[in-house]
Amino acid sequence: NDVSLLGSQLNQKDIYMQLIFPQFHALKDNERKQHLLYIRDHLYQEVKHDVQLRHQRGVIAHMFIESLKELACLQSPLNPLQLLPVKEFIDHTIPIFTTFP
Question: Residue 35's CB: how many other CB atoms inside 10 A?
């Protein structure tokens, strides 16, 4: 699943961190939802596994999780035009929020 871009090998997590996340605010609501669903359905298990590794894949997985926590991707309940990062909605009683350190 790696892609070569300008001579660099990028995996899906790199593509999200370097290309998609920086432009996430410019996406339409349904496009943001599709990306979040893709991450949940296709990347989550891989990241969950990789985050436990001590080599480069583990480092990238940690970076991906931190990028995702900081990503302004959810509409504010007080202002639908404002996007807030996932970390603003963390509920430690729900397992997904306690899966990653």
Answer: 16
